[in-house]
Amino acid sequence: MKRIAILGSTGSIGRNALRVVDSMPGRFQVVGLAAHSNGELLFRQALRYRPTMVSLFESAASEQLKGRRHGCRNLGSGVEGLVEMAGHPDVDLVLTSLVGGVGFAPLLAALRAGKTVALANKEPMVMAGAQFMREAKRWGARIIPVDSEPSAIFQCLSGSPRTGVRRVLLTASGGALYRRKGSLDRVRAAEALRHPTWKMGPKITIDSATLMNKGFEAIEIQHLFGLDHKAIEILIHPQSIVHSAVEFQDGSVLAQLASPDMRLPIQYALTHPDRAPSLVRRLDLAAAGSLTFQEPDFRRFSCLALARAAAAAGGGLPAVLNAADEVAVEAFLAGRIRFTQLARVVETTMNAFRGGRGLPGFAEVVEIDQWARRKAQETCSRL
Ligand code: MG
Question: How far does the centroid of ligand 1 lie from the alpha carbon of residue 172, in Å?
Answer without folding.
Answer: 7
